[in-house]
Amino acid sequence: MQQVISVWVRDPRIRKNDFWHAYIDYEICLHTDSVCFTKKISIVRRRFSEFVWLRQKLQANSQLMVRLPELPPKNLFFSLNNSQQITERMKGLQTFLEQILQSPLLLSDSCLHLFLQSQLSASKMEACAAGQTHYSVAQAVQRCGLRRFHSEEDLQKDLSTSCDYDSDSSECLDPELRIKDLAINKAESTASLDLMGTSQDETLGCSCGST
Questions:
Q1: Residue 198 DSSP label
Q2: What is the pLDDT of residues 175-199, one digit of tens each?
Q3: How far is CA 73 from CA 13, 54, 95, 205, in A?
Q4: Could you tell me which residues come within 8 angstroms of residue 26 by beta carbon, excluding any fewer than 6 positions away?
Q5: Per-residue pLDDT averaged across 115-142, rounded?
Q6: How far apart are the first and last CA of the chain?
Q7: Comparing C-alpha atoms, which of 10, 55, 13, 50 is closest to residue 28?
Q8: Which residues contact 33 (CB under 8 A, 6 or more apart)?
Q9: What pLDDT digit, counting tens, does each position of 137-165 carry?
């Protein structure tokens, strides 16, 4: 029986570092029955620079045995307020992940699993994959999306002893709350770009190609 790995990139949102600097992150939804994944449903948020990090790590770890797909090209005139540019980048990111997930060699890379199924920032993903953290890759993945089951006391303990949440890392959401909506709205990802309209009145003043 053929195993299925489905991935979607959707729901772009503007995040503000400060008054002058902002970036966009995207929701990555994974639904699979593959034995390569211990967690079958997950939802995280990642920004473009983290995709760049992932490709670099996969290329280095595969030692050129796999030809990696390209990411959407960087655009010096990329605008947070241009819905067409955002849509094109989002589609390119999804194509990139779909092609990567077809490679058995890349599916064995810990960096890919942490990228898709953990809340860690790039630096912490790299450290975790190298065994330099007090939590394992499996622990980082399993704790993603389970926060709502913790009491406040357990949450604080968990954060101090396991996958520390980063203010600059991606959000990790409970997948069971979103997977039904995902199946219905897979073809409607561009509708979320309406969120950008509310941000045009905020003087973001930035056009960045590698946000």
A1: G
A2: 554 555 554 454 444 444 444 444 4
A3: 20, 15, 13, 22
A4: 9, 10, 11, 12, 13, 45, 46, 47, 90, 93
A5: 95
A6: 40
A7: 10
A8: 3, 4, 40
A9: 999 999 886 544 343 444 344 444 444 44
